[in-house]
Amino acid sequence: MRQAETAPSTIGSMRARVIAGVVICLVSLSAFPVEAVAQSAASIAVEGNRRVETATVRSYFDSPGGKLDDAALDAGLKRLLATNLFENAEIRRDGGQVKVRVVEAPLLGKVAFEGNKKIEDKKLTAVVRSKAGGTLQRAMVQADVESIREVYRGSGRDDVRIVPQTIAHGDRLDLVFDITEGVKTTVKQISFAGNQAFGDRQLKAVIKTGESNALSFLLSNDIYDPDKVDADRALLRNYYLGKGYADVSVPAASAEYDPGKKGFNVKFTIEEGAVYRFGETGVVCNVPGLQASDLRQRLVAREGRVFDNTALEKSTDAIATELGKRGFPFARTNVHTERDAATRLIRVSFVIENGPRAFVERIDIHGNTRTRDYVIRREFDFAEGDPYNKTLVDRAVRHLRNLGYFKSVKIENAAGSAPDRVVLNVNLDEQQTGDFWIGGGYSTTAGALAELKIGDRNFLGTGDVLKASVTYGQYASGIDLSATDPYMFGSHVSGGIDIYDKESLANSYQSYGTDIYGATLSVGTPINEQTAVQWRYSIYNQNVTLDPASLAAAPSLPVQQAAAAGPAWVSAVGDTVTYSTLDNNKNPTSGIVSQTKQDVAGLGGDVKFLETTEDVRYYQSLNSDVVSITRAQGGYITGWGGQQVPLIDSFFGGPQLVRGFAPNGFGPRDLTPGSTMDNVGGSIYWTTSEEIQSNIPGVPAEFGLKATAFVDAGSLWGYHGPTTFPGSTQSVQIADTKTIRSSVGTGLVWASPFGNLSVSYAYALTKAPYDVVQPLNFGASPF
User: Fold this and answer.
1) What DSSP element (H or E) covers 743?
2) Which run of H or E residues covers position 557?
3) What three-state secondary structure class fits 354?
4) What pTM did the predictor assign?
5) Largest CA distance in the chain
6) How distant, in Å, are the alpha carbons of 203, 309, 622 from that of 197?
7) Closest Cα to residue 178, out of 11, 6, 5?
8) In whole angstroms, what separates CA 8 from the centre of its chain?
9) Is 330 helix (H, G, I), strand (E, B) or coil?
10) Residue-wise pLDDT tens digits, 701-752
11) Is 595 helix (H, G, I), strand (E, B) or coil?
């Protein structure tokens, strides 16, 4: 507690003085006969005022007609006290004169906080209304106490105690909020009632609130926050709506404090209802000059599919975009649904009607303390002066939320300067977007490794993405710098640059090392809601290196030739087409994602080849805890212009294709006696796998740890490198078959806070005699 030269006064004593003053005033007023106060406000005598002018005090007693009566004196007294300039005021009669005696409220010297260790002064200063230089008001101080309490509640400290105190310094008072922060209030248990279709673990993965566990200090999701719990109700409802449960409701979320556990037990009540499908789906157009058939093809919601609320939103968005293109900016889309409980079908009609002619007068943005205005405004598909369209406003909200820059996004309408003008108030709450961490780990191919990574998804509030990483490992090291502008050329076109230098050393899986450095320029754009394409240009220098001192045998002749050829520049253009219908990019349970890549090298540089790869994954939820993943991969590479594909650019089979095999474990191999018998790479591969991922009983879903069981199969072949070498009479024996490699196994995958870790144990069912197996395989990004 701070000590003052004079004894500190308390808020309680101020309350007593105010009450006493009001009582005296009321008693004094009751003694006035009406005829005794038939005077003007200018005749009132004022006493006790030091800072406030006498004329100012009298002005509060002005009344219509210029005469005072009991009602006018009472109203004037209330106005005087409402100014918050006075602790109390009393009216008395001295002969035939009316006198007002006031006690001025003390001035605040400064406003301070004591005992706050978890929350900085500047954050508390921003929420209190009592300010240095103003007057001390009891009601305002009590409101400030509640504001501070709300800040602490938002950080999970419900038992915070706040005691306001004053310290006298001459004619001023310092206001000090003495804070006892208390312990963090967390969520100890989350349960659900009424959920039949989805298990507790699956629903816990949907909501933001998490239970306290060993990783809570990293995840920071176990803090009890009533607002977050209420938001979780909406997340649960949207999840069910996306799975066909059109009647779902989450009517309640209760939270009870458990003194024994020193935390809250949160329970969500769910009323699921039945699963519906889309019935007849169509467009009804009531806008002259516009045909429904022109808009029907834009629908994402299709008859026969499982009902999905997001499909309605996407359809509405697509129609709104088409209406704007066709010159109908005021037309609006109303979604009418007709539910048939007997057939479990929902008939949907998108009704197009002319809306009121209104224009956006201004877009006022509030709360963006870091993100620049233009970054926010570019997420709007309209500008100030354009027609107002609610569908486009709703879309802007979704775009802003998807940026990941803000904790919350709200857009509210306000009246403009004319009946047909609308002001949009965009209210934002910023969140941290920067990353910095140092970690270490181990992978089968790189050995022990350490990594430093820094980055920001919203660099200096510009929306640009900057990343830098440095890796140093037992068999691999490198540096990678990248920058991306997600909004080039004033449109949703992203542009980026990636500069890298990567080196690998000879190890037990290959007799040679590699050194690659260069840069990649890329441009990407969305085609529609599910499809995006990226174009890129890469130029890099690659080199095969040998360390004869570390080799027990002579390297394979194809490896020696690649090393003797020296460094080569590769200049390539390519594209990647991605199609995704995943329900969640980080933790998918349903949907398809397909990625097709093509690269052509030879537009300059020393190397000419054409490469195509495909990777398709299909996710399907089997029950509340189990997800099936079906995956298929394939690739083809060939030289052109009379050139062969360089060794370093060929395909090599390993655990990334079929688990249970060592890195470079299968594919064409040099079996020449006396050589290192290296994998020399192939030109064609295919693989397929079926995997089951399941949550682990007893392990909280927030851990991100899952058990897997899988079956993999595939093959790699097509060596097109040299088999004879100048100056050598040795015959090279290349084993190159289309033998199917397959395996079965189990494993663990962990989506840790620092990256992805996986460990698997697989048994090879079929293989070629010369393949190298390795049942245990594990790898990790730094952790």
Assistant:
1) strand 741-752
2) helix 557-564
3) strand
4) 0.63
5) 133
6) 10, 18, 11
7) 11
8) 48
9) coil
10) 666 788 999 999 999 999 988 877 776 667 788 999 999 999 999 999 887 6
11) strand
